[in-house]
Amino acid sequence: MPTIRDVARLAGVSMMTVSRVVNQRPQVSPGTRERVLAAMAELDYQVDLTAQQLRSGSSGTVALIVPRLDHAYFGQLGAIAADAVIDRGRHLVVEQSSASQEGELAALSLARLHQYDGAILSVVGLGNAEVNRIRDSLPVVLLGEKEVPARFDHVMMGNVSGARLATEHLLDRGARHVMIVGGRHGEPTDGMQSARTAGWVEAHQSRGVEVDPRLLLELEFIDTGVTRRTVARAVEQDPTIDAMFCVTDEVAIGALAGLADAGRRVPEDVRVVGFDNLRLGAHIGPGLTTIDPGNEWIITEAIRLLEARMSPSPPTAAEHLIAPVQLVERGSSR
Amino acid sequence: MPTIRDVARLAGVSMMTVSRVVNQRPQVSPGTRERVLAAMAELDYQVDLTAQQLRSGSSGTVALIVPRLDHAYFGQLGAIAADAVIDRGRHLVVEQSSASQEGELAALSLARLHQYDGAILSVVGLGNAEVNRIRDSLPVVLLGEKEVPARFDHVMMGNVSGARLATEHLLDRGARHVMIVGGRHGEPTDGMQSARTAGWVEAHQSRGVEVDPRLLLELEFIDTGVTRRTVARAVEQDPTIDAMFCVTDEVAIGALAGLADAGRRVPEDVRVVGFDNLRLGAHIGPGLTTIDPGNEWIITEAIRLLEARMSPSPPTAAEHLIAPVQLVERGSSR
DNA sequence: GTGAAAGCGCTAACAG
DNA sequence: CTGTTAGCGCTTTCAC
Asked: How far is A250 from A277, CA to CA, in rounded Å?
């Protein structure tokens, strides 16, 4: 591989001049620039970004760390983020944190994170202890539905309001036995499932309907197949169920399948609403009514916060943002 | 940030000794190792991977470059690859190549690629001219359904055999008017759609059924919504269609929706088979029959080839592999 | 507008 | 088992 020194020799200039041309600095005369560019082309020169980064301290790269690459939701997040980061003149790389046995922490090795100018971290399954290990040495914005230490910037979905919106929609449609599929007891700050369960409860209160605790359906884990089996069993045991709020769209797809297995029609017998607004939802069964969590908004804000932290200006107080949600009405709840 | 020099000073040893401890080299006495580890903990030392890489020439990182992060297929690929790479003692980062206006080439900036020990490149939409710009300076394995220059290692799906298998399955079930949804004329080496169309033709020949060229349904582009509209129109115009081979599962999901829109039942009126074996397929409608392209096999082989290229041993001739496919039979074709 | 010197943090190669 | 020397490829700083 040719180095900047080879280019300098060939062009008859100093390494510094080549460096200036490579980095598009203005203080180079047109003639010199031409000769340097010619030499670069001649040698097929490529900058060594590693050396550049070691010396200059910046890599031009931002990382997005997600738990799983094969969950549709994180894929959408990654695609949006990649475009947004490019528009800001940097590049995005995505890493999967829960890879293999080593688990979340391995990918979070601070050493690796330090290779980037900044990082957007999706903190599902990460304890505060782990998150706290991130020193203030690196600009970081947190994503995710759990409470995080106050000193970090944090963007989350409108879990409570979204779940409430979805459940109110079902109650307003006349449903009186709205099951929450994938619900979980606990504080709304514990995570996605607890927060959405809180919204489900709130909706009942706002509409003056009693909450039936037997309608909280826990799932062994969040998975389409698991949901399918669990839901089919549930509706066979309790034929009065007339609606389901599913904590995610993937769960809702499992619920639709389970309801079909049990011979229930959607929306005639049971209405269904999901959460995430996956693209696919529009084309599944009668069309999946869902909550749009505002992913574009989330990424836009996360990157805005990250840019602020990466800028040389004095660091401001951490922000904690909640994205605005929207109901997307389709056939499964009509 | 503390450096190796700070640790060395605190532990009362040379930088080299600290380096040996950090890199788990055996030739350090237990006592010294203890003191160094203590000093590292005390200072909360983290290696600078950039400097390490500049000096040692290796980053311990492999890149996977995919066109879109939000296509379920590439998400699954990424997840499998991340696990496989970790098991080999390295890390994986995923980049999206078709980000924003700049397009494929930007992410392929050779300079960026050189930061990695090796790269797995999904070459959808990449011309041979672009691929050829990759010098032999970096271990690279190509993925994708188009023909590539012979000097590159290349792993691809069994497009022709898979499409043939799917179509034969439909013909054997008694279908006589098997439409290919998302088909395209051209050489089988042109890309995914042409290759699968070739398999569709082969199946007709092997079963002695005439190919009706009007049953080749082109799509404006590969998208669930586009497919839905196009398929609904097609079956209204030609009521004799009794089966569909869809070039991908995402297309198949659109076809299922379009068939429902047009009042056709699956599988009673029209049988449907997809291609990709997305997890979701099992739970959509009657269950989507599909071709499993052997993603695990593809990634396993790609990484094996990459490891071989990354090893110091002499480079062997490039390999061009085709993954074995399998029919996954579900309700949509019964 | 251009160049020389110095060094980012680390490790290969060689001594001992 | 431990240390010294040199330098990876680049850019910062300062000089001209």
From this structure: 10
- Minimal Cα–Cα distance from B231 to chain A, Å? 13
Mean pLDDT of A113-131: 85
Kindly list the strands in the beta sheet with A140-143, ordered across the sheet, starting from the edge strand earlier in the chain.
A320-322, A153-156, A140-143, A118-122, A61-66, A91-96, B91-96, B61-66, B118-122, B140-143, B153-156, B320-322
| Both tokens assigned to A290 | 């869902």
Nucleotide nearest to A56 (CA to C1'): D11
Residue with tokens 């340097």: A36
For the CA of B295 and the C1' of D9, the distance in angstroms is 39
Q: Is residue A104 scored above 60 in pLDDT?
A: no
A279 touches strand C (CB under 7 A): no
Supply the DSSP symbol for B247.
S
With contacts defined as CB-CB under 8 Å, which chain A residues touch B1? 114, 137
Between CA A259 and CA A162 the distance in angstroms is 23
Rounded to a whole number, what is the largest CA-CA distance in chain A? 85
How much is the average pLDDT of A91-104? Answer: 71
- Say if the Cβ atoms of B102 and A87 lie within 8 Å: no
Q: How far apart are the first and last CA of chain A?
A: 64
**C-alpha count within 13 angstroms, C-beta hemisphere, residue A63:** 25
Q: What is the mean pLDDT of chain B?
A: 93
Residue A59 sits at the chain B interface (C-beta within 8 Å): yes
In the three-class reduction of DSSP (H, G, I as helix; E, B as strand; rest coil), residue A50 is classed as helix
Question: In this structure, is the dihedral angle defined by the CA atoms of residues B233, A276, B273 and A264, taken in order, positive or negative?
Answer: negative
Q: Is B170 helix (H, G, I), strand (E, B) or coil?
A: helix
With 80 as the cut, is the pLDDT of residue A276 above it? yes
Contact B226, B250 (CB under 8 A): no
Are the Cβ atoms of A69 and B49 closer than 8 angstroms? Answer: no
Three-class DSSP category at B20:
helix
pLDDT at B101 over 90: no
- Residue of B70, B88, B230 to mutate when probing chain A, most A C-beta within 10 A: B70
Which chain A residues in 208-237 lie under 8 Å from chain B, judged by CB atoms?
A: 224-225, 228
Task: Give the relative orientation of helices A224-237 and A249-261 as an angle to the nearest 10 degrees.
Answer: 50
Q: What CA–CA distance (Å, rounded) separates A52 from B42?
A: 30
Rounded CA separation A215/A178 (Å): 7
- The Cα A81–Cα A306 span in angstroms is 12
Put simply, the answer to whether B94 touches A95 (Cβ < 8 Å) is yes
Confidence at B123, pLDDT banded by 50, 70, 90: confident
How many beta carbons lie within 10 A of that of residue A274, not counting itself?
A: 30
- Å between B134 CA and nearest CA of chain A: 11
pLDDT per residue as tens digits for the range B197-223: 999 999 999 999 999 999 999 999 999
HSE value, Cβ hemisphere, 13 Å, CA-based, for A55: 7
pLDDT per residue over B22-76, tens digit each?
999 998 999 999 999 999 999 999 999 999 999 999 999 999 999 999 998 999 9
Label residue A97 by pLDDT band (50, 70, 90): confident
Alpha-carbon span B62 to B81, nearest angstrom: 10
Q: Do A82 and B96 touch (CB under 8 A)?
A: yes
- Cα separation of A269 and B143, whole Å? 46
What domains appear along chain A, each with residue ranges and CATH number?
A: 4-56 (1.10.260.40), 61-157+295-324 (3.40.50.2300), 159-292 (3.40.50.2300)
8 Å CB contact between B156 and B301: no
